[in-house]
Task: structure prediction
Amino acid sequence: MSAGNFRTPLIAGNWKMHTTLPEALALAAALGPGLERVTKVESVVCPPFVSLAAVADALRGSPVGVGAQDCYSEDKGAYTGEVSPAMLAGLCQYVILGHSERRQYQGETDDLINRKVVAALRHSLRPILCVGERLEENEAGHTSEVVERQIRRGLQGIADPAGLVVAYEPVWAIGTGRSATGAQAGEVAGLIRRLLGELWGANAAAATRILYGGSVTAANIDEFAALPDIDGGLVGGASLRADEFVAIVERTASHAG
Ligand code: PGA
Result:
């Protein structure tokens, strides 16, 4: 984040399919004191749906926000097992959409993800849209093309992106301990910002936060947080350890203007 950057950095913890309700509450309680000390960085945790309301209750009044890990594209109806953005509105502020694990294991397409983003924005939820190339796409030199397609299709038809966050998460870096380099992530973040500018103009592009995700730890967050086009991180594994997550937020704050 460069000096004078007006975007507030964001560190979002994606707990994925981890934590029972008691474990989620214990993790939220352990985060509170550490995160309350940090200014200049917004921190958000994204617990499993079953713990969302309880974690939101536990963190109410603290500076730590809450997000969901997914939502459906419809407000209500006969969609067994799905959770609608209308149900999440008021309960949490953010929703992760298009995560590569959902693209891979649930077969989510750019078109479905687009409908989810539109639905989330309609309910004033802030989508964290995840994009990123797979290893074979990276090795074939197709990173820009893949990310451009995911951005254009995932965001099509959206008139006002206010609240939108984009996370660049190269699939080969997720959960592997092999993060991208700052140079790689910065280049793709720059591409994403240019694409956002083409879609909505320079002001909206400049106001949109772009995160890096993929094996982020307290030891490597500086490499990303120091870059002008990267405004924080989407953190998986490391977000399950309270001290590590707090340290990531603290490191990020040290780069914030
Ligand atoms: P990781 O996951 O930090 O465990 O690599 C990141 C993510 O999937 O959002």
Q: What stands out?
A: The longest helix spans residues 182-200.
